[in-house]
Design a protein that fits this description.
Blueprint lengths: L14 E4 L23 E4 L3 E4 L5 E4 L11
Parallel strand pairs: 1-2
Antiparallel strand pairs: 3-4
Length: 72
């Protein structure tokens, strides 16, 4: 278990990264929380993810902000 505050709060949504096999990434926290809830609730591809950079070139990487649903 690697889950800590604030991710284990009862009103907090935990977001994690997964690889191409849908396995939670080693750098993502995981639960259960102190009261037994499964964490993270939401995951997205975050390892060797492909995207187009500002010039339109395909790029691959593992940026930790990609799985986050919070807009920059």
């Amino acid at each position: 278990m690697s889950l800590g505050t604030p991710s284990d709060a009862d009103s907090m949504l935990a977001v994690g990264a997964v690889d191409s096999l849908n396995q939670v990434a080693g750098f993502s926290s995981r639960g259960p929380s102190d009261d037994g809830r499964t964490k993270p609730e939401v995951v997205a591809r975050g390892i060797m993810t492909r995207w187009a950079d500002a010039s339109g070139v395909d790029t691959y990487g593992t940026p930790t902000e990609l799985p986050s649903p919070v807009p920059w």
